[in-house]
Amino acid sequence: MMPAQLSILIVNWRSKDFLRRCLVTVRETCTDLVTQIVVVDGGSFDGCGEMLAAEFPAVEFVQSPENVGFGRSNNLGFAQVIGEAVLLLNPDTELKPRAVQRLLDELNARPDAGILGPRLLNADGTLQKSSVMALPTPLNQALRSEFLMHLLPNSRLWGAGEAFRATEPVVVEAVSGACMLVRSEVFRRLEGFRPDYFMYAEDMDLCFRVRRLGLAVYHVPQAEVLHHGGGSSRTQVSQFSLQMMRVANDTYMRLNHGRATARNYRALQALSALTRMLLVLPACLLGRGARRTQAWMTWNSWRLVLKWSCGLQR
Description:
With 314 residues, the chain is of the alpha/beta class. The chain folds into two domains: 6-234, Spore Coat Polysaccharide Biosynthesis Protein SpsA, Chain A (Alpha-Beta Complex), CATH 3.90.550; 258-309. The chain has helices spanning 16-29, 48-55, 70-78, 99-109, 138-143, 146-151, 161-165, 184-189, 202-212, 239-257, 259-286, 289-309; strands at residues 6-12, 35-41, 60-63, 85-89, 93-95, 113-121, 132-133, 170-172, 174-175, 179-183, 216-227. Strands 1, 2, 3, 4, 5, 6, 8, 10 and 11 form a nine-stranded mixed β-sheet that branches. Helix 10 packs antiparallel against helix 11, helix 10 (239-257) packs parallel to helix 12 (289-309) and helix 11 (259-286) runs antiparallel to helix 12. It is globular, with a radius of gyration of 20 Å. The N and C termini lie far apart (49 Å). The relative contact order is 0.13. The model is unreliable at 230-237 (pLDDT under 50).
């Protein structure tokens, strides 16, 4: 077998239709590359294995018997990887022409590069701000809100400014796990994603550990990838997701910065949740109809975050 220039690793969870479209764009845009494609189904049994066998027989398929989480599922698939570089790709993405080649060109041109991420686009073609992020801290996670991010889009708190400004590859703190190109040797050296995470923050953790090795994380704006965003969990962006994000960030703080930082994170989350509850309370009491219903839903979500932050709910 000819050695693969690149392995593409995709974890599926109830995203068969997204996965099909993703693989079509891989086939259309990677014709000049020798690629290996590995798909892991994370215990969803949504028929993607049968779809792959019928429509993409060259894809290597790994069926996990249960949902062990995003990071562990990637680690399962990485055991099959033979490429010198691995593209970790969400199933709800679509590759634009030459996106992968541009990432590979930059990887080959930059010996200090450990991870490279593309410019992510929304379905309407607009910029997805999560293309570039700051690594989580207790402060930026407490202040994170659509209002403040819109008011201060270039603040170092979010780290997203380079996604708006950069026209050439630039070193950043972190890129989204929706699409990241990693040197296989680096991923192997780090033993893949940490198994401590079930969902969320494992990409931030990987970027942090790559930087700790003395390697750089690059944003490559010339490479464009459409990301539908939440294709696997769109119907569950809810109180569960809100809480799971905080559990993941708490794990990130503890593993990378120690228990004192994790305690600070919880304390600031409690203060943030309480502040948001107070801000939305007038709409809960004085609002009418759908606005009032939405306000109470928001208030209750932050109430659960407050309970979790205070250790009253796991």
